[in-house]
Amino acid sequence: MAEPAAANGPDGLRVLSWNIHDLLGDPIAVVAVLRAAAPDVVCLQEAPRLWRTAYKLATLARSAGLLYVTGGRRSAGTALLCSMRAVVTGEAAVRLPTSGRLTRPRGLAHARVGLPGLAPLHVVSVHLGLTPEERAGHVAMIRDLVAGSRAAVVAGDLNEVPGGPSWRALGDVVTDPAPGAPVTFPVRGPDRRLDAVLTSPGVVVHEYASWQPDEQVLRRASDHRPVLAVVSPPGPVGASG
Predict the structure, then answer these.
(1) What does each C-alpha distance from 16 to 45, 95, 125, 155 come to in angstroms?
(2) Each residue of 201-228: pLDDT tens digit?
(3) Are 126 and 75 in contact (CB under 8 A)?
(4) Nearest-10 crossing angle of helices 53-63, 27-37
């Protein structure tokens, strides 16, 4: 197993985004990956969403040395976890509209997350729909949500490759800081980059996708590869997120 990544000092917030496939894989492997990443904030997709979600997410977080912030059933399986050193305010979980009763529910979880010595970032965990029409509606809501944020991160499973309509539509508020980043899906023989951490103008990206977990552990954990970015907001401590 890879050694835990060294947590950065106050110059960077470690943001991990990961679709954990409804925890259908090995939950011990999921925890191992989370611990190895040493994140400050985790944006989850396909987290527990059907029953006792708060308990399950709190248990997962505690096992990984993290805290459960928000999400689960209320946001259709998107969720936020954070480290002990993170400062979190304004957390919320939101359902996104879908096209029918047989369609998998969608949602987003968001909060303002900072570190001592850093202004907060508005962090949004998203899981977009499978159809172009659903994604267009979801993106419009995300744009409205972060449009007034001074510094924002939108992270998640976009169900679309770079250059698609959703990526372009989000471009007014958040953009791809690493167009050449590795593909993320499926975990075995990946050929599509569906997962990303997108940042608003002015957000400093110190690292992007340079950390990779142990391959065998990752394959037991999920069908998606996680994305880790180290970012910091512009401006002084206390600036609005």
Answers:
(1) 11, 21, 10, 8
(2) 999 999 999 999 999 999 999 999 999 9
(3) no
(4) 50
Which residue is associated with the tokens 């190895």?
A: 36
- Two tokens, residue 202: 């002015």
Strand, helix or coil for residue 28:
helix
pTM exceeds 0.90: yes
Cβ atoms within 10 A of the Cβ of 59, count?
A: 15
d(CA 56, CA 215): 25
Other beta carbons within 10 Å of 144: 10
Torsion of CA 104, 124, 11, 115, to 10 degrees: -110
DSSP, residue by residue, 116-127: TTS--EEEEEEE
* Peptide bond just before 48 cis, omega within 30 deg: no
